[in-house]
């Protein structure tokens, strides 16, 4: 379902890829925020690619730039204070950053959609959930109120909200957390987007509900062959659904890998730290591992490798030289001077 | 909902009793003899004085006097002035004039205040925002006494003599709704400033809300994001302010009514205090309290309309 008002020459009607061009490609993206204290460099040259039907998990702690990158893709950063001094975000080969605001709002919600962390605050409290879902059809497709509401009920059924027909006129606060996130999902997939960005979609939910939501997302993705970007700091969530993982630290990608490789053997000390800080039953009673130190201050980034003040394997050149993203194999890369040693377990 | 309204109305009874008793006591303690006030500088005939004191229960204790007053109110009788006029006759038409004035001011306040506030919020930090904030500062700094006469002179008289446009009557109520325009603007002045700033803050806060970001992410046009998603949420504090302000405008109209020669309740209140016409003073305050209570009830009911999370059982 392409919107006719988007210039078709900008968006070649190709499925999935154009030659070798992925569905969505972020290329050397930089985002900075002007603050009273100075310029905060939130994203410093991030690149990643997503193909149709693929799930990319972007992993990292708060302030790593994972959400900012996603918001830059959506075009929902407040500019100013945000600024994108460098980089490209190509969707089907077209750099979104070159489009006008009007062109971008045609892509937002229709071709690239987003789910937010806390559905209670992300849904408007004063409108019914039906109204908020139906709005997608009414504004973007010009449907009548009645037809749009029928579509809303259909979508609520699809995300398995019980008694959708009776609940379409309820308000967000009348639903449970899990149900609210389902409504958020229904709204985001309303117009069959090609890319869905889920920004910590399960963080605000309890564990059993988390699993259901992830299952639902995975199922919807299979049905429609969407590209899914899953932003999270929860390694447990990632393992089941992701195809590949990009680990972010200090506004950079520090490791790229297919999901199974990373779990069996990390190629960056930060990833290793993350994996070791997952609580394990066989380690019961022992102190839980935690990465020492604090996340970097975006206003005053460490020299060299941003992770060096916290890195257990730090060498002298880590303090001075910014590591490049070394290619390990066709699908793996690591931004560590000593990735070989980290992989072998001989580092430090 | 119905039960809630009934409960609120019942709660109004102690409020009404408390306020009337308070004002009754204050008036009772006012210096001066109301009977003497009738005669001005001349001596009062002792027989007349005794008859009057008897008739108006002036020799009874405060509580008994108050009891007589409430008894009258309950039967719809606001009492009689010392000059023998029923208080309700004095009220005739005057509440209407003050209410017209206050409503005119409220409409002007709502349109100008919310309008300027929206512009300021959307142009945050830009020249328009700074200009509007400076303007609100100017508004609160000018006393009604000054703005009233200046507007009367400039819009009422000079505009007429220089361009022939005779749109703003400067006194009285002979020109229908237009008579209330100038006094309405003057009366609304300070409130406009507060409402502008409140609107600005409220909208700026709403614009930062997650659901506004969601609306943008849904690809909604900017006009819809602002007009539908943000505005309704930011209206809630504004309704509170406007509701409470109706009472303030009604009781604060004294100077404006004097400048524009409007025969409203504000002027009557001041005159009655000077003449020690206790029954009129207490009567006016009672009605004002009633209007206050009604305005607050309407505000509370409007909440439920604006915000579905608020429900009254």
UniProtKB/TrEMBL annotation, chain A:
An example Gene Ontology CC term for this record: plasma membrane
GO biological process: peptide transport
Entry's localization field: Cell membrane
Chief localization: membrane
Any one Pfam family match given in the protein's UniProt record, by short name: ABC_tran
Record keyword Cell membrane present: yes
Topology term for the membrane: Peripheral membrane protein
Annotated keywords: ATP-binding, Cell membrane, Membrane, Nucleotide-binding, Transport
InterPro entries documented for this protein: AAA+_ATPase, ABC_Ni/Peptide_Import, ABC_transporter-like_ATP-bd, ABC_transporter-like_CS, Oligopep_ABC_C, P-loop_NTPase
Gene Ontology molecular functions: ATP binding; ATP hydrolysis activity
Limits of the ABC transporter domain: 24-275
Gene3D superfamilies from the UniProt entry: P-loop containing nucleotide triphosphate hydrolases (3.40.50.300)
Family label: Belongs to the ABC transporter superfamily.
Protein name per its UniProtKB record: ABC transporter ATP-binding protein
UniProt source species: Herbidospora galbida
From TrEMBL, chain B:
UniProt membrane topology term: Multi-pass membrane protein
GO cellular component, one term: plasma membrane
Compartments in which it is found: Cell membrane
Originating species: Herbidospora galbida
Pfam name, any one: BPD_transp_1
Taxonomic superkingdom: Bacteria
Family: Belongs to the binding-protein-dependent transport system permease family.
Biological processes per GO annotation: transmembrane transport
Protein name: ABC transporter permease
First-listed, main subcellular location of the protein, grouped into a coarse class: membrane
TM segment ranges: 12-30, 97-120, 132-157, 177-195, 238-260, 280-306
Keyword field: Cell membrane, Membrane, Transmembrane, Transmembrane helix, Transport
Record domain ABC transmembrane type-1: where: 95-303
Keyword Transport: yes
